[in-house]
Write a structure and sequence with these properties.
The protein is α+β, with helices and mostly antiparallel strands and about 240 residues long. The protein has a single domain, classed as outer membrane lipoprotein receptor (LolB), chain A (Clam), CATH 2.50.20. The chain is about 20% helix and about 40% strand. Strands 3-2-1-10-9-8-7-6-5-4 form a ten-stranded antiparallel beta sheet, covered by helices on one side. The radius of gyration is 21 Å and the shape is globular. About 15% of the residues have low confidence.
Length: about 240
């Protein structure tokens, strides 16, 4: 009887483990389908309008030019100044988030994002040296589009991207990206200074940044896809 109970327990544990593994593989398959859609794009350039909403930075809506080239070259050039995207944002580009096959994909249920039913998938990197600790993707399975992504990094905090799509959805390229982050993890680009209301009390930089939220909104237009982008574009 004791051996039978042990056998039953082992069988249940094996079945549970196998079920998790199978479900994980199903999610990996979904992520790879999304990646394959993004991989159609060898390069692109696009125009854009960028709106920066960060409480301590006064920045008007500006025109930007965006460039991408496989495997991971990305550049956002802002007219007349420096882009105000934090370093943790990498590139505000989905291809950079799913740039590797070295991950474990686990299901985390379903959730509705902007009226689209999405599979919630947790991506855990296999490589311990990866800067990314965890990425959560909200995948519109019917259209193989990432509607939302939340990424936690080792040194640059957690940031969130929410995407909406238009005529270039067939390439997985968004019409609008809303990028949100916590300013306490924000690393100011060189040449940018903090600007606060005149009546604000003198505080340390750390106090000024604490618990403040930042948001960058980019609206894309005039995509040119797979027509070639020179490497010189990415030299800063």
């Amino acid at each position: 009887m004791k051996d039978f109970k042990m056998y039953k327990l082992c069988f249940l544990l094996f079945t549970f483990h196998f079920s998790l593994l199978t479900y994980s593989q199903d999610m990996t398959g979904l992520v790879m389908k999304v990646k394959a859609k993004l991989d159609q794009v060898n390069d692109y350039e696009a125009d854009g309008n960028m709106k920066t909403d960060v409480s301590f930075i006064k920045a008007p809506i500006g025109k930007v030019k965006i460039y991408f080239k496989k495997p991971n070259k990305f550049r956002l050039k802002k007219e007349g100044g420096i882009s105000l995207l934090p370093k943790g944002g990498v590139s505000v580009n989905m291809s950079s988030i799913i740039a590797t096959n070295d991950f474990v994909a686990l299901s985390a249920g379903d959730q509705v994002v902007n009226s689209a039913v999405c599979k919630v998938v947790k991506l855990l990197p296999i490589n311990e040296s990866s800067e990314i600790v965890l990425t959560t993707l909200y995948i519109d399975e019917a259209n193989l589009l990432v509607r939302k992504a939340i990424t936690t990094t080792k040194e640059n905090g957690t940031y969130e991207m929410e995407m909406s799509y238009g005529s270039f959805a067939k390439f997985g390229l968004p019409e609008k990206v809303i990028f949100s982050f916590n300013t306490k993890d924000y690393k100011l680009p060189k040449g940018i200074t903090l600007e606060f209301d005149d009546n604000e009390k003198a505080l340390t930089e750390a106090q000024k940044l604490k618990n403040k939220k930042g948001r960058v909104e980019i609206t894309y237009s005039n995509y040119i896809v797979n027509k070639g982008v020179a490497d010189a574009v990415f030299v800063k």
